[in-house]
Structures are given as C-alpha cells and as structure tokens.
Design goal:
By secondary structure, this protein is an alpha/beta fold. About 45% of the residues lie in helices and about 15% in strands. It has one domain: 3-Layer(aba) Sandwich (Rossmann fold). Strands 3-2-1-4-5-6-7 form a 7-stranded parallel beta sheet, sandwiched between helices. Helix 2 links the parallel strand 1 and strand 2. The termini are far apart.
Length: about 260
C-alpha cells in the first residue's frame, strides 16, 4: 500500500504542470492565473494586496502567498513555502508591477525607487530564488511582463516607469543568454494600454470611456487591450508550443501610432 501511494504521488507530480505568477490576483496577472488554471497548471501566486481576491483564487485551488517581490527576504521566505508544495517549477511569470506617473521635472525619488524595487528588482529576486526549481523541469519557461513603454513611449509622465520596464527587457534578453544552457526559455510580453484596475481604477465611468476612446484612436486596430489578450500570449510562451522561442519581446499594443515600438 505504501509503495502504491508513493507511485501514485510520483505519477501525480510527473503529470502536473507547476507555475508561479507574481501579482496574480488582479488585472493582467489575474487573467494569466485563470488562463493557466484552465490549462491544467497547478498555480502559486505571490501578491502584495488584494486579500479578498487572493481568497477567491484559493477557492479555485491556487496557492497564494502575500509577498512584496521588491523585498528579497520576503521572496526567499515565499520560495521556502512554495517548495514544500511544488517539486519543481515549469513556468515562472514575473508580472508584478506598479506605476507612478510624473513628468521628468517633477522627479520623485521615493516613488522612482519603489518602482525600481518592484518592477525590476522584483524580477531579479524572484527569478534568482526560484531558479533551482526551474532547473528541475523538462520544459522550463520564464515570461516577464514588461510594457511597450520600455521600448519607446510618447505617453506623458511615463519616463521613470519606462526606465524600469526597459530594464526588464534587457534582463529578459540577458537571462535568455545565460540560462539557455539549462534549457530555460526566457521571453517577455510588452503590453500597450490594457483595461485593468491600474489604468481605470478609481475613475468615473465617463472618464474611463474617454480614456478608452483616446487609446482606441492611437492604434492601428482602433481598439483597446483586455487582460485576456496578454494572458493568451503568456500561456503560449510558457508552453511546449513555444519550445524554440527565447530572448524575444512580443509587443501587444494594437499597433500604437504614437510610440516608437514599431520603428525598431
């Protein structure tokens, strides 16, 4: 009986696909989490706020841990907890991010440092801490969520946010180079304006509609993005369907006409 149970446990671990999503309780991260759950992944989520939304995910069978990814000690502790439940990681999605809009001449060092800690350092800390679990996978994949701002943006007040997201892009390419020897694929998605709590939260319906129309008129496709649009790309890059793709940045912004993303 004991041997049979051990065999059953071994087969369970062999067939289950394990993924970690940071910032996975809301917006793009929530859509990514739900997409991977629907594809049969066993998911762990790191989140900083949104306790009620984390509870909803737990009811779906998702392992949720409160963690500020910009704090290396918290990331290390989260890894220890996840390692108790997950024998490996097949996919790591570095999605957690924050933004503060400010013109260059209104530089706020404290807000800039916070964005650096979460948006860029958080990707470094999480990837570094969970690298041993990724090395145990036969098809390991890292997907970093950057932004089209990291390639070139004309949006007002995004200079310092763009710096952090540009850092994610070069980090993605460097990690693809350095981790390829472990068969770890590393790619990034650079979303444009997506309808999320971050872009629409706290705004009146009329103001939200004005924003939608503004960004519709800035794209070739005359539409705005949904969190599911980014989740679909992430789920593809995390899967075996993308086994020969690494070091790439996929821009998903509907063809923004006011950015530099299509001139490079």
């Amino acid at each position: 009986m004991i041997l049979a149970n051990k065999l059953k446990l071994f087969l369970y671990h062999f067939h289950v696909i394990y993924a970690l999503v940071t910032g996975g309780t809301r917006g793009i991260g929530r859509a990514i989490t739900e997409a991977l759950v629907n594809e049969g992944y066993r998911i762990a989520v790191l989140y900083h706020g949104s306790d009620n939304r984390a509870k909803e995910l737990r009811e779906m069978g998702v392992l949720t841990l409160k963690c500020n990814v910009g704090d290396r000690a918290q990331v290390s502790n989260a890894k220890k907890e996840i390692e108790k439940e997950f024998p490996r990681l097949d996919a790591l999605v570095n999605n957690a991010g924050i933004w503060y809009l400010m013109p260059f001449e209104q530089f706020d060092e404290e807000k800039y440092e916070e964005m650096i800690k979460v948006n860029l350092n958080g990707v470094i800390y999480v990837t570094y801490e969970f690298l041993p679990l990724l090395k145990r996978s036969e098809n390991p994949s890292i997907v970093n969520v950057s932004s089209n701002a990291g390639i070139g943006t004309a949006a007002e007040g995004t200079t310092f946010y763009a710096i952090t997201k540009a850092g994610v892009i070069i980090l993605t390419r460097r990690l693809a180079f350095e981790l390829g020897k472990y068969n770890i694929r590393v790619n990034a998605v650079a979303p444009g304006w997506i309808e999320t709590d971050m872009t629409l939260g706290g705004k009146a319906p009329e103001e939200g509609n004005k924003l939608r129309e503004l960004f519709r008129n800035k794209t070739f496709l005359h539409t705005t993005g949904k969190p599911e649009d980014i989740a679909n790309i992430v789920s593809f890059l995390a899967s075996k369907r993308a086994r020969y793709i690494t070091g790439q940045v996929i821009v998903a912004d509907g063809g923004r006409m006011d950015n530099l993303t299509h001139s490079l």
